[in-house]
């Protein structure tokens, strides 16, 4: 009976921890169990007394707050203050920027799936849809990627004019200022469609609508600045760029050495209070054609002309192109995707103080502005463009793999090719879902700092994998550049998207988990803030409250992680009325494991975790995969759970779960402390690691889905531009695909006859003639076969050029060579 009582107490504690009971409820429950055993069983009185005393010794100090604060929280707070990572002001800004949405649920270990499934899912308004179907479609028809990237190194003048006329540069500018005032979803739809055709046009449209002068002005500009600049930017009369990066300050952008010194000077013939700017920026998109430069620099006021602060901090100003001293116009060449990009330099450039975005009142707030806006911009620009790019890859690779034959079979029928195609399809599904979910978060009023980092990183990383797979499947057809090549430039440009808006290694190592752990954790930020309060007694009271909430939360997650691991999450609270219930169960399990592992990592490593990038990036991978899976499941639900799409979802899901297991496994295996390693292993993988990579049969089904027209293929590639013209190489593929499929039985019949020697040894033409004579196929069928074969021949063709065409135009001498000569 004594053992039964011990098991009862333990069982109740596990149950309470799993269900997240409050401390008081656990105390009452435990007391009730003890009383029950004392009254209704024959457990020896001495044992009851000993257990009651032990229990009281734990429960009383925990429940009586003044005692708890003095005995437990105060000494812990003293140690905690020494463990806190030292955060620079800029890191603090980054941590405080943005809001927490669904990722907070995933991070906290017990996601409420119903709240995700019931979340409002906005759609494009009719105006927005009309813009996507009208001007965007028209733009896509006008684009000639080869001409843009190889011949002009620019968009043709008529395209620039069209972009301005239709206000493509004003998507994020409110209608009252003459912009389009689009939702994030519409913004995404536009970039996705353009991204499926031409990266030069995509970047040209993306930049004015992302972090830069327009967005800064909309959020922080003075009325005067808004009234002057926003209508001009919306109409394309001003072309903006934004300069933050310089030769010595790349990823560590807050270390910019560029300065602004407040002083008096001459501006347009008048003596005014202004800033003398000295700066050296590089890699600035649209700089060569910009008329207005958004510039980040550190502002100083050595003579106290606007206040008593000498080092005011990072500030942002708008510098017109014609300002004396501004050097602009030279171009970099980003991996042969020649959108305008180049350096911007300035020596003793004098501008008045009212060029500061938001005026003097916002001086020194530059970093906060940039980080807040980046939380939004990163959710849209690159994920949407990647989504367009990968959908094009899925569409064309599926068609090409069916049309291109080797060894008398469509290449997509070979298992080796299937392996690339199923990954390509699954990642396309994932990227599109991820980009839709983060854009939706923006439309729901969030500033999704962590999801936008996840989306930027994973959309571009998976995108790089997809374009590589697509290239591999296309073989030489993907490699030979020219107007017929719809993939090569995308493959060349993939590292650009990896690098911009926060290079990916840094994003994975520092931002996803670094921000996620502190932003999404229900207690850590609150504890840090309480520990930093100047009012020490208020600080202790707050710290105590959060600390004990945190302890309960950690115990809960440890127990949940283990119980879910032992039971393969069979009892997790998930929507059970659907086939995907087991997916939700697995996610709940890994969510609890992530919450537990994160707490243990933070507790045992403290401030050192910041430098343990391998641990934090792997924990970030788990959070990311949880988020990506949530986005895919939401997508599946919104689309009405189409059974035909299930194989793609299943492949993508198992791949993600396998990655989660590996990432957590690597955290466990490499944890620096042996005791913690053992603890993590027991609680996270109590029965070992059982997730498997998606199976071959599933992979086969997925690959085949890409290779014939269907609703699934349409859904997978929706929202991109597909020409209906045979003169367009992608249009030709799509026109040919159904006809190639329809004539496959004829080809098989002919092949059989040929192998049997019935068609003689002539060329294809004479064999066809013979087949008609022998009634193997009809005359009409022969005509169709001939037409289809002509189309196929056209599809597999690659470009050829005169040698002189490919030679560099020697009249334009590269800047560097010119400089050296000088
Ligand atoms: C085509 C193009 C367009 C661009 N457009 C603009 C623009 O319009 N405006 C603008 O201001 N900037 C722009 N940039 C700059 C871009 O944001 C930077 O290139 C980027 O921030 C990385 O800086 P970096 O190239 O100097 O690399 P570095 O900072 O030198 O980094 C090199 C590598 O080290 C990694 N790394 C650095 N620190 C860490 C760390 N702590 N932990 C882990 N890894 C780390 C990075 O991830 C990267 O892989 C553009 C860049 C390119 C290439």
The gist of it:
By secondary structure, this protein is α+β, with helices and mostly antiparallel strands.
Care to describe what's here?
- This protein has 822 residues and is of the alpha+beta class.
- Helices cover 61% and strands 8% of the residues.
- The strands form two sheets. Strands 1, 2, 3, 4, 5, 6 and 7 form a seven-stranded mixed β-sheet that branches.
- α15 (366-403) runs parallel beside α17 (449-474) and α16 (415-443) runs antiparallel to α17.
- It starts with a helix and ends with a helix.
Q: How large, in whole angstroms, is the Cα Rg?
A: 31 Å
Count of DSSP H/I helices: 33
How many strands? 9
Low-confidence runs (pLDDT<50, min 5 residues)?
Answer: none
Structural class: alpha+beta
Global shape = flat
* Share in helix: 55-70%
What small molecules does the structure contain? flavin-adenine dinucleotide
* SS strand fraction: 5-15%
Average predicted local confidence, pLDDT: 93
Q: What gap, in angstroms, lies between the N and C termini? A: 96 Å
Largest sheet descriptor: 7 strands, mixed
């Amino acid at each position: 009976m004594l053992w039964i009582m011990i098991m009862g107490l333990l069982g109740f504690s596990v149950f309470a921890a799993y269900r997240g009971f409050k401390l008081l409820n656990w105390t009452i429950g435990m007391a009730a169990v003890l009383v029950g055993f004392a009254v209704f069983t024959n457990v020896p009185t001495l044992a009851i007394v000993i257990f009651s005393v032990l229990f009281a010794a734990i429960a009383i100090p925990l429940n009586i707050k003044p005692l708890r604060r003095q005995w437990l929280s105060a000494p812990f707070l003293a140690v905690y203050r020494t463990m806190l990572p030292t955060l620079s002001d800029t890191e603090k800004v980054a941590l405080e920027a943005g809001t927490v949405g669904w990722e907070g649920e995933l991070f906290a270990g017990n996601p409420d799936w119903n709240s995700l499934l019931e979340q409002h899912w906005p759609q494009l308004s009719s105006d927005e849809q009309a813009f996507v179907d009208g001007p965007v479609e028209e733009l896509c028809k006008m684009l000639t990627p080869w001409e843009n990237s190889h011949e002009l190194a620019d968009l043709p003048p008529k395209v620039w004019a069209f972009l301005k006329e239709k206000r493509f540069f004003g998507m994020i500018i409110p209608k009252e200022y003459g912009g389009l005032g689009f939702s994030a979803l519409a913004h995404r739809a536009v970039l996705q469609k353009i991204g499926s055709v031409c990266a030069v046009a995509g970047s040209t449209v993306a930049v004015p609508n992302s972090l830069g002068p327009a967005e800064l002005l909309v959020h922080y500009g003075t009325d005067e600045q808004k009234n002057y600049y926003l209508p001009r930017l919306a109409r394309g009369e001003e072309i903006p760029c934004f300069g933050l990066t310089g030769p010595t300050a790349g990823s560590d952008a807050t270390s910019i050495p560029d300065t602004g010194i407040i002083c008096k000077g001459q501006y347009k013939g008048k003596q005014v209070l202004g800033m003398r700017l000295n700066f050296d920026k590089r890699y600035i998109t649209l700089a060569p054609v910009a008329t207005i430069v958004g510039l980040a620099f550190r502002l100083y006021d050595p003579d106290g002309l606007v206040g008593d602060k000498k080092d005011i901090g990072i500030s942002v100003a708008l510098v017109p192109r014609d300002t004396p001293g501004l050097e602009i116009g030279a171009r970099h060449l980003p991996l042969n995707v020649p959108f305008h990009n180049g350096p911007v330099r300035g020596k003793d450039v004098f501008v008045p103080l009212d060029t500061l975005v938001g005026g003097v009142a916002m001086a020194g707030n530059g970093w906060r502005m940039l980080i807040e806006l980046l939380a939004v911009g990163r959710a849209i620009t690159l994920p949407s463009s990647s989504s367009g790019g990968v959908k094009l890859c899925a569409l064309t690779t599926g068609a090409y793999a069916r049309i291109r034959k080797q060894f008398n079979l469509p290449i997509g029928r070979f298992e080796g090719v299937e392996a690339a195609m199923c990954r390509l399809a699954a990642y396309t599904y994932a990227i599109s879902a991820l980009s839709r979910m983060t854009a939706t978060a923006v439309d729901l009023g969030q500033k999704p700092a962590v999801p936008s980092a996840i989306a930027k990183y994973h959309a571009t990383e998976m995108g790089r994998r997809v374009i590589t797979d697509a290239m591999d499947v296309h073989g030489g057809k993907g490699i030979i550049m020219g107007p017929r090549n719809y993939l090569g430039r995308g493959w060349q440009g993939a590292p650009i998207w990896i690098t911009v808006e926060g290079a990916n290694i840094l994003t994975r190592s520092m931002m996803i988990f670094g921000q996620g752990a502190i932003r999404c954790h229900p207690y850590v930020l609150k504890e840090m803030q309480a520990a930093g309060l100047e009012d020490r007694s208020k600080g202790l009271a707050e710290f105590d409250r959060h600390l004990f909430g945190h302890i309960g939360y950690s115990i809960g997650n440890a127990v949940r992680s283990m119980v879910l691991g032992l039971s393969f999450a069979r009892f997790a609270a998930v929507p059970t009325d659907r086939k995907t219930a087991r997916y939700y169960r697995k996610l709940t399990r890994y969510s609890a494991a992530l919450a537990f592992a994160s707490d243990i990592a933070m507790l045992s490593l403290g401030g050192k975790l910041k430098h343990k990038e391998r641990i934090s990036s792997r924990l970030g991978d788990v959070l990311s995969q949880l988020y990506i899976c949530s986005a895919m499941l939401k997508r599946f639900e919104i689309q009405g759970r189409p059974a035909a799409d299930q194989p793609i979802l299943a492949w993508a899901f198992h791949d993600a779960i396998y990655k989660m297991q590996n990432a957590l496994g690597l955290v466990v295996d490499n944890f620096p402390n042996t005791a913690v390693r053992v603890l993590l292993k027991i609680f996270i993988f109590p029965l070992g690691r059982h997730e498997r990579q998606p199976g071959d049969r599933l992979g086969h089904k997925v690959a085949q889905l890409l290779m014939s027209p269907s609703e699934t293929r349409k859904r997978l590639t929706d929202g991109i531009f597909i020409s209906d013209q045979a003169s367009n190489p992608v249009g030709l593929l799509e026109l040919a695909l159904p006809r190639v499929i329809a004539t496959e039985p004829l080809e098989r019949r002919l092949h059989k006859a040929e192998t049997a020697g019935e068609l003689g040894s002539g060329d294809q033409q004479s064999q066809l003639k013979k087949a008609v004579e022998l009634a193997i196929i009809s005359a009409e069928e022969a005509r169709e076969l001939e037409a289809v074969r002509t189309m196929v021949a056209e599809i597999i063709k690659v470009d050829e050029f005169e040698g002189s065409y490919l030679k560099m135009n020697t009249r334009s001498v590269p800047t560097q060579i010119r400089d050296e000569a000088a």
